[in-house]
Design goal:
24% of the residues lie in helices and 26% in strands. With 346 residues, the chain is an alpha/beta fold. The strands form 4 sheets. Strands 3, 4, 5, 8, 9, 16 and 17 form a 7-stranded mixed beta sheet that branches. It has a 6-stranded parallel beta sheet with strand order 12-11-10-13-14-15, with helices on one face. Helix 9 links the parallel strand 14 and strand 15. The two termini are 19 Å apart.
């Protein structure tokens, strides 16, 4: 076992504090990673505050991990010491079900193992990226291309794949009109990726406050959802809407903007249930869908795509002892666009 420093929430809603945790010995197929940077995802806050249900404490959040391999097990073939690598939201799965065999580990029938707030196959809790080092099976470690610096690559391991996967699945590309709801940590990545895929991109935000940013990031159009005229002007416009907002929305209003046979895909995960008049989907044979992260192969595909197109996250680098303040600022939507912890400060 290796003892490493980390930042952990000792209990639900408690401030994170510096502590130490044990990492397992490097097994035959394991990779030891010196974590250089860890992104702060809104889902870290949801889980540390038990917004999504009962959680495991102490909790070391963080599933946007970028670092360098410092040791490999004797059976490892995919990674070598010195490689630049990333770890996202999963560190294991059953590997035997139809979904795992299809490269869709995120839908593992046997239950995928989360990078933190989960229990590994060894029966021990998993701890995430707000720490100095992590040990992960080689099959759940991805390569970060040389064209991406590690700090801006870290958020791609959740925010990047969470938006790339639905854009990829619902065929965003030339000739498609795509709207992104919300221009935050997820939304700004969705705009960059959809633009790089060749789609015509519109941002739908509460106000026009970030319009200049949105256009710089690659949006062709920017509209305020607080303006009732937006819903009149854009009725039936979009092939695909990706909603990145984790607060309750008027899904009926958003669905009115979707074309016949189009889709509204939710990647934001509100803590409260929603209500919906089903005529808003029946009327245009529309799809209201959800999408989580992607599988490991798709995550690698996303990283390669982002490197090819020069896409990284827009980040604000912080010290580890600023994490509690960062949480409050994320909740207040006061970040452009992703906090990233410099793990050298842990």
């Amino acid at each position: 076992m290796t003892t490493v420093a980390a930042y952990a929430a000792p209990a639900a809603k408690a401030p994170l504090e510096r502590t130490t945790i044990e990492r397992r010995p490097v097994g035959e197929f394991d990779v030891l990673i010196d974590i250089k940077f860890a992104g702060i995802c809104h889902s870290d806050i949801h889980q540390a505050r038990e917004g999504w249900g009962e959680a495991i404490f102490p909790m070391v959040p963080g599933h946007e991990i970028a670092g360098v391999v410092s040791e490999v097990g004797p059976g490892v073939t995919k990674h070598a010491v010195g490689d630049r690598v990333g770890v996202g939201c999963l560190v294991d799965s059953c590997r035997e079900c139809e979904h795992c065999k299809a490269g869709l580990e995120q839908f593992c029938s046997g239950g995928a193992v989360g990078t933190y707030n989960a229990v590994g196959k060894d029966g021990q809790p998993t701890y995430g990226g707000y720490s100095e080092k992590i040990v992960v099976d080689e099959n759940f470690v991805v390569r970060i291309p040389d064209g991406l610096s590690l700090d801006v690559a870290a958020p791609l391991l959740c925010a990047g794949i969470t938006t790339y996967s639905p854009l990829n699945h619902w065929n965003a590309g030339p000739g498609k009109k795509v709207a992104v709801v919300g221009l935050g940590g997820l939304g700004h990545m969705a705009v960059k990726i959809a633009h790089a895929m060749g789609a015509e991109v519109t941002v739908l935000s509460q106000s026009l406050r970030k319009k200049e940013d949105g256009l710089k990031l690659g949006a062709d159009h920017y509209h305020a959802t607080s303006d009732p005229n937006t819903f009149k002007e854009l009725a039936g416009t979009f092939d695909l809407i990706v909603s990145t907002v984790s607060a309750p929305m008027d899904f009926g209003a958003l669905l009115s903007l979707v074309k016949v046979d189009g889709a509204l895909v939710n990647v934001g995960a509100p803590e409260e249930p929603i209500s919906l008049n089903l005529f808003s989907v029946i009327g245009g044979r529309k799809t209201l869908a959800g999408s989580p992260i992607g599988g490991i192969a798709e995550t690698q595909e996303m990283l390669d795509f982002c490197a090819e197109h020069g896409i990284g996250a827009e980040i604000e680098l912080i010290r580890a002892d600023e994490v509690n303040e960062a949480y409050e600022r994320v909740v207040a939507s006061d970040v452009r666009y992703r906090f990233v912890i410099d793990n050298a400060t842990i």
